[in-house]
Amino acid sequence: MKLTVWTYEGPPHVGAMRVATGMTGLHYVLHAPQGDTYADLLFTMIERRDHRPPVTYTTFQARDLGSDTANLFKKSLEDAYARYQPEALIVGASCTAELIQDDPGGMSETMGIPVPVIPLELPSYQRKENFGADETFFQIVRTLAKPVERTQQITCNLIGPTALGFRHRDDITEITALLSDMGISVNVVAPMTSSPSDIARMGAAHFNVLMYPETAESAARWMERELDQPYTKTVPIGVGATRDFVREVAEITGLDPYLDESRLRLPWYSKSVDSTYLTGKRVFIFGDGTHVAAAARVARDEMGFEVVGLGCYNREMARPVRSLAKDYGVGALITDDYLEVERSIEALQPEMILGTQMERHIGKRLGIPCAVISAPVHVQDFPARYSPQMGIEGANVLFDTWVHPLVMGLEEHLLHMFRDDFEFHDAAGPSHHGGHAPKAANDATSAPAPAATETKTAGDGCVIWLDDAERELKKIPFFVRGKARRNTETFATERGVSEISVDTLYEAKAHYAR
Amino acid sequence: MNDLPRLPTSGGCRDEPILKQRGQREVFCGLTGIIWLHRKMQDAFFLVIGSRTCAHLLQSAAGVMIFAEPRFGTAILEESDLAGLADAQTELDKVVDQLLERRTDIRQLFLVGSCPSEVIKLDLSRAAERMTEKYAPSVRVLNFSGSGIETTFTQGEDACLASMVPVLPETDHRQLLLVGALPDVVEEQAISLLTQMGIGPVRVLPAPRADSDLGVGADTVFALTQPFLGDTHAELERRGARHIAAPFPFGEEGTTAWLRTIANEFGVDDETFESVTAAPRARARKAIAQASESLRGKSVFFFPDSQLEIPLARFLTRECGMQAIEVGAPFIHKGIIGPDLDMLAQGPVLSEGQDVDLQLDRCRAARPDLTVCGLGLANPLEAEGLSTKWAIELVFTPVHFYEQAGDLAGLFSRPLRRSDLLQLGVRA
Fold first, then answer.
1. Which residues of A are catalytic?
2. Residues 98-117 of B with CB under 8 A from A
3. Cβ atoms within 10 A of the Cβ of A234, count?
4. What is the mean predicted confidence (pLDDT) over B240-246?
5. Which position has the higher pLDDT, A456 or A3?
6. What is this structure's pTM?
7. Which residues on B lie below 8 Å from A44 (Cβ)?
8. Which residues in A37-66 are b (16+ Cβ under 10 Å) and which e?
């Protein structure tokens, strides 16, 4: 039993729903109690879908339990087939139905439904949403995809996009265009946008582009083995990764690498002098393994940030993320415990978080700006405008969305110049900096509180800030104050200084000057 | 007595046939109630013993995470817990120890049963007894079920309040108990109106804190503020309290009828009643008249959701000039909802329970001007050209009593006004 406050992933059947909802002509009959239908609203509200997810729930109740939940399932399956006439069905159980062991897969086999009925075994008490999506897509592909004649021209399948995916909609457009520039057309995009008959002709493609390993790696491996289709290992998020991706595709296909960089702005924007202030910004990165790995590379190599911590919530990616963390010389945080992530961020005091909607809330509380790079998604992650993460435009989007929460370079300089200005003090707050709603109690000009309450202790040692030093600290612009506080405390602790004076503060500043 | 509503001459709906179909029900489970209950009971923690699905539901229903560490959480059952039940009890003890150690501000802990915990027959009442002994007197531990196999949406609140009644101390004081979790602003308005009429003492269930001296006994009379409190009603009667059956306090008419029924119980004279209610009644009428302009002559179709459907249909048809096509409710408890059924003119289909596909067929055929439904159906119906009102907002928003009557009408009229306002044109 594990106490959970917020979850990064839903149960595995929600992953199956993401696959089914992204597709057309497929229907999911889910053996589940009433109440599990809440999952529909994820799609209709968060993603603003204009159709109900293609899911029929048996919605059994207590009174059905002793009697006939199995027949309820059969009837639901019959009705769903008759009403929706899908090309194929997937059937399975949610967590509660798993316990009553009605075996939806076994029952459906005996019912003579004239289209493929694909049983799903999704262990609800062990696995989670990403596994559910990956396994469901794998089972669909395994059942429906057959070896077929290759297309004459070089084509590929884009695999991994699902309903409720983080920017999947726009990544498809971007990667389709990028490949088209190389002379490669897309055979099938799946699961999102495909139908069961599209899945059946996936084998016609020459290779697969594995866009999101979280949701399609099992299918990619199976198709490599059974359909002789290699798949790409690079996820094209960021400039370097996009270029690597193009080279990888060229190697697979024997075509010349080609990437139209005429619209690419990230490198110049990052080089331009206004970006100098980004240098060495300490960032903490958390999300799904794929987006975290991509973000780490962009953060360090393309933005000039310092990665001070990273991690992922999906245990399936623990291994690659651990080795990635090693490359960056930081520890890897592999956890789905939101409170642990929060503690970690609090201890590291980064200047910026690249995370999920959950970390955005942590950032709000701790006053640390945050840009969202990964699912779990929120209605904000489905912008009306074109906003991919992948490819050339994706790199531009990353630059904008990561820089946006930070104070701009010139503005930072001005803030420093005018830090004592009467209109420009802390309480006035910066104009567009969501993370720093001023707290009235923190006003530096208010009467000093008794020394005892001013005492601040560092994480490990016990260091006291003297009143003068505390006041001096408050004169430092808010966006570097956390760093100054932490550096000074570390400096003091290392030297066995127990009281921080104004001198200690400036000695530390000199020590850490870069 | 002349303030009691006139009943429809053609007869009310109390004895009308009810359409009952069995199929997929598109409703929340009772766990959802935790979202508003934990805001109301400020020293309570709600610990769901369930699966990842339960945790995911709570998170999705809460919509946004605005609380650093909310006063609810899920003890997620894992494979090892399902193997042997003895383990599950010990595991639960560990989780609760851990929780109460960190949250010393907690005075009431609710162990909330879920579908999986019910199916594996995890005995939470035994756990609650054991823990109550262990943590007395600082924390009281109770249990109720919010599982989808036993409760639909607002029934979770009912189960929670019902679990509190047996442990309330006995009192022989004459008192009025208002039952139902209402937003503070609304609750204060109700108490103020009643107090001005000289009715008192007025107590509320749930009380905001565990240490309030709320008791119950034979001299307690109670009025429900929400129509979904059937089990709580039964528990209170078991304790000797007496129910004052009344239409529910939605809209000017409903509020007046509700207040008048209570006032009669306490022997308030007409003059006093009139002097206390005249001004807010007039305000409510005016506000409804304004807000309901775009509702007059329009038709409405209710999908089952919160059990508020019948009182709301009564309000919309009698005070806002709408026509009800179908009024669907998850349950129809005539002992509680009877006075509202009496006031609702015959005509609409009354349905209880749901086969959502068949009900959607009826809705599409009827093409109502406004459809009141859950979040899973709203956007798909909008995409089909129907205007919708999400039902959950009716539970989360202050809508009871006089001062909110205009807002209540506004909740329904806003979608219609919006579709009139938007000039989005057609595809070129």
1. 274
2. 98-99, 115-116
3. 18
4. 97
5. A3
6. 0.90
7. 375-380
8. bbbbbbbbbbbebeebbbbbbbbbbbebee
